[in-house]
Design a protein that fits this description.
Number of helices: 2
Structural class: alpha+beta
Shape: elongated
Radius of gyration: 15 Å
Helix content: 10-25%
Oligomer: single chain
Largest sheet: 5 strands, mixed
Strand content: 35-45%
Strand order of the largest sheet: 1-2-3-5-4
Number of strands: 5
């Protein structure tokens, strides 16, 4: 089983065919009924071997949608894709009243060698 990397995470987003951005939504993506925004918020140096280090990076993944979470096929598909890598994040949900959107979000820890 492959380890989750930043590139693999981006590949999973691309396979969903849902617009996504790193950091903040683009103006174009704000117009879509579903979109993903992800960003890193924790960097942890870890020993990989002897004197070399790798980074364990924690990302927040935010999935915005007009569909309620249980009816959101793309969110469920993303969860199933992550399960294939034995990743089962705790997914939180909220409704953003002024935007009329559901916001589902979770954290992912990703190994980033050479970062």
């Amino acid at each position: 089983m492959k380890e989750l990397t930043r590139n693999l995470l981006i590949q999973l987003f691309e396979e969903l065919k849902v617009p996504f951005n790193e950091g903040e939504s683009s103006i174009e993506n704000l117009k879509h009924e579903e979109r993903i925004v992800f960003w890193d918020y924790i960097w942890e140096d870890i020993h990989s071997s002897n004197l070399s280090y790798a980074s364990l990076v924690t990302y927040q993944v935010s999935f915005f949608s007009i569909y309620p979470p249980r009816e959101n096929q793309k969110l469920l598909e993303l969860r199933n894709k992550l399960r294939k890598y034995n990743i089962r994040p705790i997914i939180s949900h909220e409704y953003v009243i002024d935007k009329k959107l559901f916001h589902s979000y979770f954290k992912l820890e990703v190994d980033e060698d050479g970062f």
